[in-house]
Amino acid sequence: MAAQAQSRQPELRKDAVTGRWVVFSPARSKRPSDLKSKSPSGSANESSDNCPFCAGNEHLCAPQIFRVPPDSAAEWRIRVIENLYPALDRNLGRPDGGGESGEVLGGFGYHDVVIEAPAHGVHLSDLPPREVGDVLIAYRKRIEQLAAAFDEIKYVQVFKNHGASAGASLSHSHSQIIALPVVPPNVSTRLGSMKDHFSRTGKCSLCELPLSDLVIEESTHFISFVPFAATFAFEIWIVPKIHSQHFHDIDDEKAADLGRLLKLMLKKISVQLNDPPFNFMIQTSPLHTTASELPYAHWFLQIVPQLSVVGGFELGTGCYINPVFPEDAAKLLREVNVP
Amino acid sequence: MAAQAQSRQPELRKDAVTGRWVVFSPARSKRPSDLKSKSPSGSANESSDNCPFCAGNEHLCAPQIFRVPPDSAAEWRIRVIENLYPALDRNLGRPDGGGESGEVLGGFGYHDVVIEAPAHGVHLSDLPPREVGDVLIAYRKRIEQLAAAFDEIKYVQVFKNHGASAGASLSHSHSQIIALPVVPPNVSTRLGSMKDHFSRTGKCSLCELPLSDLVIEESTHFISFVPFAATFAFEIWIVPKIHSQHFHDIDDEKAADLGRLLKLMLKKISVQLNDPPFNFMIQTSPLHTTASELPYAHWFLQIVPQLSVVGGFELGTGCYINPVFPEDAAKLLREVNVP
Ligand SMILES: Nc1ncnc2c1ncn2[C@@H]1O[C@H](COP(=O)(O)OP(=O)(O)O[C@H]2O[C@H](CO)[C@@H](O)[C@H](O)[C@H]2O)[C@@H](O)[C@H]1O
Ligand SMILES: Nc1ncnc2c1ncn2[C@@H]1O[C@H](COP(=O)(O)OP(=O)(O)O[C@H]2O[C@H](CO)[C@@H](O)[C@H](O)[C@H]2O)[C@@H](O)[C@H]1O
């Protein structure tokens, strides 16, 4: 179907991956190129005084899980630690089976923090591409540990909050990993939607190439684009070109390649949108599932700049209003130069 | 099942109505009674200068649909007008059938604004109970008009944004009505979940009385409570005691009764939570459906104070972290006195 870049009438689009209807509503915004963040990504602790994530303040942190490089004599570049205020409790009795059908489940689970750099004020996108890749490899390692140790963990959500209005309470560059005893709703919905597409067409919805006017950039192993029915203005997906269910199957070479592309995308939104708060999420498949069980599943990394506030319409309907057509966002992001 | 008010361990709960898993995580917050809004509900246009919604500035507004009282000689108390920047377009060709199965749909639909009072700075909860009821009757009337005129409108979402971090761009008290050509995802999910419960138990999930420790207040026709698996801290539902699918079947007497209870709930969250930004949404059933088609459906009004920011975990999983157990929130709201 032809993307209607020229049309400036509102349009509803349904995404083949998320299964979500999104209202594209150009009347709701100024020109896409004028859309900038009103609250650049400043966070709570701008100063490094007493920042628990700074090198030298390790004693202020919850226990370490591992560090990179592992040698404890050397200076670390990345630390994976326990979250001091965990949403789930690793010490709780594991839930006794049943799982998703019951109505209450003990809050067993893991909640970790990945400190992405030792120095305050060095953001993920400031790191050399290979070191961004090393952060991705740290995610992989932690997921592998969780998958190997606990059958009860059904899904691992890796995410990053950058900037106060994206939820970040600390500005020192970090991301989080939450391991859940249930498959969360967005994941079930996404897999259901991809399965439908697969049954109908025989194809994986993410192996099909996106329309060329939605593409931002390609690397050896990945492609980045604005999804056809992007939920949020300037949302970006980075997808492995080769069909793959699980993020944690990524190898070191692909992680370095993804690191380079992720850094570039973060730089592009920073320049185009005035250093916006953003989130990124790794959208992967449930643990303990095989490629033959989920032939339609394909992982990706989703980047969401936070440019607007969710209101009652979105809360009520689960339907989002996006003022920027994806093909317009992609063009701007393709063309913006980063220093 | 017994609500575990004493337990201070994290817990996952699944709501029988929304079908959503929520992580209750006491470690993530201070004591529930200390939870206050950090950004009381101030909005963009604090002053009434040039406020398009003020009496006398009607010429700054998009066209009126109707006013209350209808007599145009008298002073109005409520105005229902077109939205100047509509998300959907009432003048677009109506979508040619197909609907939800296709991937693109013309953005046909309606987007109206309800101005709840003529004077700037008079909020909904400042109105006498009966006038709050009149606002509800204005919603009903507009939904009836839309339902009678257009078979293509599948669902009408009534919602209110109060305060900038709840999405409000204007502070003059108002709410919005969006009429959609599709049944939105949260509604399908909710109806699916209520249908499951009905098939399993033979009962409507909202006709069953909530646990007494979740109840905040009862009126003649309605009951207000914190739902067992509240997605948001201090979320409140107001539910008609008599089984009813559609909000717009409410009669004047029930609307006045609901107006009183809604006002009380808004006052309670204002006192308890320091005038927080909030949204409310009417969660009703699709248009053009009958009671026999949806025997399990029961409408309600949902109030959500905005006390925290959505982060990458919620965006990624669709699963929310609520730091306040519903029974604790209900106790505080039950006990707080309003002036
Ligand atoms: N000394 C220490 N040692 C170890 N860990 C420490 C620590 N001091 C603080 N932490 C942890 O570090 C994490 C920092 O995370 P973020 O700033 O990205 O967001 P946070 O989880 O606070 O909440 C945001 O993200 C979540 C999940 O998306 C949303 O629920 C929420 O509303 C939003 O604000 C916090 O989880 C905190 O508990
Ligand atoms: N002169 C005039 N005549 C008629 N109408 C006028 C007008 N001037 C302004 N309006 C309309 O009045 C409405 C006021 O609504 P709100 O302030 O509640 O939120 P808004 O819709 O801006 O966006 C919030 O709610 C939506 C829906 O939840 C979210 O998408 C969004 O991010 C969030 O900020 C706006 O929709 C605006 O278009």
TrEMBL record, chains A, B:
Region: Disordered, residue numbers: 23-49
Ranges of compositional bias, category Polar residues: 38-49
Zinc as UniProt keyword: yes
Binding site for Zn(2+): C51, C54, H120, H172
Catalytic residue positions: H174
GO MF terms, alphabetically ordered: UDP-glucose:hexose-1-phosphate uridylyltransferase activity; zinc ion binding
Designated name of the protein: ADP-glucose phosphorylase
Source species of the chain: Punica granatum (Pomegranate)
